[in-house]
Amino acid sequence: MTSYGDDATVREILTGTGDTWAVVGLSTNTARAAYGVARVLQKYGKRIVPVHPKAETVLGEQGYASLAEIPFPVHVVDVFVNSALAGEVADQAVAVGAKAVWFQLGVIDAAAYERTRAAGLSMVMDKCPAIEIPLLA
User: Fold this and answer.
1) Dihedral through CA 53, CA 74, CA 108, CA 55, nearest 10?
2) Which of 3, 15, 32, 41 sits at 20 to 30 Å (Cα–Cα) from 22?
3) d(Cα 107, Cα 88) in Å, to the nearest integer?
4) Which candidate, 125, 100, 89, 80, places its Cα nearest to that of 15?
């Protein structure tokens, strides 16, 4: 199996890329994985920005309907949408000037990975930052 994001890239995104994370697919549904992961990211000092069509406030942070609507720089775009939609989100992350894209466990789009890397962004795919970040301590 191909690995999309070596340990050095994982570490760099989690520790050196920046602390503002847009979490695409994050809503107020506490049963969803995105909610739990966003909570862990907050615990580790990241500012989470919910991105969801409903633009709900989640975990105390104002939500936005799309990446393009966020009025401040985003460092990392964490993607919790299915693989069929993820490539478009990666392209939007490039367009808004993010520094890195993170596709969650089970979210895989090899072509989007190649496009995103070619655009100069760091990228991890099919991994979970909430699993990886405690391992860095």
Assistant:
1) -10
2) 3
3) 13
4) 100
Q: Are 69 and 94 in contact (CB under 8 A)?
A: no
Residue 37: strand, helix, or coil:
helix
Distance CA 5, CA 3 (A): 6
Structure tokens at 6: 């070596």
Residue 11's closest CA among 101, 121, 136?
A: 136
Structure tokens given for 68:
């393009």
Read off the pTM: 0.95
Sign of CA dihedral 128, 131, 136, 137: positive
Tell whether the model's pLDDT for residue 21 goes beyond 80: yes
Q: Specify burial of residue 113 (Cβ count, 10 A radius: 0-12, 13-18, 19+).
A: buried
- Rounded to whole angstroms, the Cα distance separating 110 from 114 reads 6
- Among candidates 86, 130, 33, which has minimal Cα distance to 77? 86
Instruction: Tell me how far apart the alpha carbons of residues 61 and 19 are, in angstroms, rounded to a whole number.
Output: 14
Q: 3-state class of 102 per DSSP?
A: strand
pLDDT digits 0-9 by tens, 54-101: 999 999 999 999 999 999 999 999 999 999 999 999 999 999 999 999
